[in-house]
Specification:
Blueprint lengths: L1 E3 L2 H9 L8 E6 L5 H17 L3 E6 L4 H13 L4 E5 L3 H13 L4 E4 L13 E5 L2 H18 L6 E7 L5 H14 L7 E8 L4 H13 L6 E4 L2 H13 L8 E3 L5 H8 L6 E3 L2 H16 L7 E3 L3 E3 L12
């Protein structure tokens, strides 16, 4: 069963949070190296404080799979009531799923799925946002604005991807390409793309190299805001007017919103880090209390433009 949460539904779910309380919840984050994941983890912690009567045992792995497996084993041995895992990768996630099932321990995967996300055992759930929606919203908006600015006869674009083993990056990139294959947007051609690993500096380096090689850029599609900001760094360093290039990211981080305010970034897509953290904890509490939860809970993405960006300051 899948659940798609509207803002109203999310608020309603929080209202009943005190109904199911577990004493001890283990939390393992693959990393908190970017703003989004920090917000997600912080919201799990603040939500636990608001509910009360919950002990969180939080650990980080520095993106090491063996460390994360050892952490779950330690959680099992210490008799926690449920665990929340942001997994290192899908394969590690599958192993964690198997280990938790063998121990009859409820486990919630948040933001990054296990490989068996479509066939998880009982007492397991995945909380995230539907990644294709992020790429679709970004690409549709950039396509529409390019048309409005008279570039419907032909436009060139760069695509900055997250890691190829990251389901979110794959979903966002696939969705961008799907939109650009439609009759409405097939005037946009991706002339170069690369993996920049969510990293601003790597994105800057790639875009700078494309500009130096003579590539003309009308738009940049980036799988996250950090890479979008790196693209902007490269474009501005090369003397390219940001009035001539559309740049889109994902996450609606504060840096991205400030860039939009300055007239540099044009589009981002809000991924509700706090909403994912809240729902991960609530599902963990319910499973620990013996209640059923949806196997998949999706917190919607939201398009952010100059017209509505004021709503999102302070959110991520």
């Amino acid at each position: 069963m899948k659940t798609f949460l509207t803002a109203a539904a999310l608020a309603a779910s929080l209202g009943g949070a005190t109904a199911a309380q577990a004493e001890i919840i283990g939390v393992s984050m693959a990393s908190v190296g970017d703003t989004f994941l920090t917000v997600l983890k912080d919201r799990i912690e603040s939500q636990a404080e608001e509910i009360g009567g919950i002990e969180l045992r939080s650990v980080e792995t520095n993106n090491d799979g063996d460390t994360q497996l050892a952490q779950l084993k330690a959680f099992i041995n210490s008799n926690v009531d449920a665990v929340v895992f942001h997994v290192v990768d899908e394969d590690i996630g599958k192993t964690l799923s198997d280990m938790a099932a063998d121990a009859d321990l409820p486990i919630i995967f948040v933001n990054r799925p296990p490989k068996n996300v479509d066939s998880m055992p009982a007492k397991q759930s995945f909380v995230a946002s539907a990644e294709h929606d992020a790429g679709r919203l970004q690409a549709e908006e950039i396509c529409a604005v390019l048309k409005e600015t008279g570039k419907q006869d032909g436009a060139t674009a760069l695509l900055l991807r997250g890691p190829d083993d990251h389901a979110g990056a794959v979903g966002r990139s696939e969705a961008v390409k799907t939109v650009l294959a439609t009759d409405e947007c097939d005037f946009i051609k991706i002339v170069a793309e690369d993996v920049a690993d969510w990293d601003r500096a790597k994105a800057q380096e790639f875009v700078a190299a494309q500009i130096e090689s003579g590539v003309s850029v009308d738009a940049v599609f980036a799988n996250n805001d950090s890479m979008a900001l790196g693209a902007i760094d490269a474009l501005k360093a090369a003397g390219v007017s940001m009035d001539e290039v559309l740049v889109g990211g994902v996450d609606a981080t504060q840096g991205a919103l400030m860039s939009m305010s300055a007239g540099d970034m044009d589009v981002t897509v809000f991924q509700n880090a706090a909403g994912q953290g809240e729902n991960a904890l609530l599902n963990a509490l319910d499973l620990a209390a013996g209640k059923a939860v949806p196997s998949l809970t999706f917190v919607p993405f939201e398009l952010v433009t100059l017209d509505n960006m004021g709503m999102y300051f302070g959110a991520n």
